[in-house]
């Protein structure tokens, strides 16, 4: 468990990265979809690498570490795939990729919150609530034709990224708290 706690900052970095991506959505809602795409491509690649490092370094200490590894690999591959596509193709499929990515990460977040509960973390319910909220937002994004155009897409993605970022930051500080409890 000590090694898992030493890497709590990886989840913090992931949260900060997601929040930056969410803020970008609101700060530049009229920005071209191409510009938004490259922000997400960089975010996917960095996020994937960080999650792979976190999962592998904590495989002996965390239940379900394989889900974090799978999420990191999927995110990294998604980022690489989007990076290698022609610009015209990226803008067309980004909407769907981001929607499914938010759905996948939301389900992963719900799983992570149950892991926090198993570790005896008192605030695990907040993490669960944020995961459920992101799941609802992802379904709204993917299933509603109203949310599949223009500024609505940017706003919904921005909200989802902010909520996901908050979840990752909450999770990071919960892991850090576990480390303090182990030292006592």
- Low-pLDDT stretches: none
CATH class identity: Mainly Alpha
User: How does the helix and strand content classify structurally?
Assistant: mainly alpha
Strand count, sense and barrel status of the largest sheet are: none
CATH architecture field: Alpha Horseshoe
Beta content comes to under 5%
Number of domains: 1
Number of strands: 0
Helical residue percent band: over 70%
What's the helix count? Answer: 7
N- to C-terminal distance: 14 Å
Order of helices and strands: HHHHHHH
**Cα-atom radius of gyration:** 16 Å
Shape: globular
Topology:
Blueprint: H1 2-6, H2 8-27, H3 33-57, H4 65-84, H5 87-118, H6 124-143, H7 150-183
Helix pairs in contact: 2-3, 2-7, 3-4, 3-5, 4-5, 5-6, 5-7, 6-7
What can you tell me about this protein's structure?
- It is a single chain.
- The chain is 85% helix and 0% strand.
- It is an all-alpha fold and 184 residues long.
- It has a single domain (2-183), classed as Serine Threonine Protein Phosphatase 5, Tetratricopeptide repeat.
């Amino acid at each position: 468990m000590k090694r898992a706690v030493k890497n709590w900052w990886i989840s913090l970095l992931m949260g900060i990265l997601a929040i930056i991506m969410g803020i970008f959505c609101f700060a530049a809602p009229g920005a071209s979809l191409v510009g938004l795409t490259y922000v997400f491509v960089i975010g996917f690649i960095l996020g994937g690498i960080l999650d792979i490092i976190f999962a592998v370094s904590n495989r002996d200490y965390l239940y379900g570490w394989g889900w974090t590894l799978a999420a990191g690999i999927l995110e990294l591959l998604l980022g690489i795939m989007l990076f290698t596509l022609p610009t015209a193709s990226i803008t067309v499929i980004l909407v769907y990729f981001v929607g499914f990515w938010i759905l996948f990460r939301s389900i992963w977040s719900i799983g992570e919150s149950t892991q926090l509960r198993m570790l005896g973390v008192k605030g695990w319910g907040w993490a669960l609530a944020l995961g459920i909220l992101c799941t609802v937002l992802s379904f709204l994004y993917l299933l509603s034709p109203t949310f599949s155009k223009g500024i609505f897409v940017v706003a919904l993605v921005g909200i989802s990224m902010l909520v996901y970022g908050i979840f990752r930051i909450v999770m990071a500080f919960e892991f850090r708290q576990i480390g303090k409890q182990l030292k006592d």
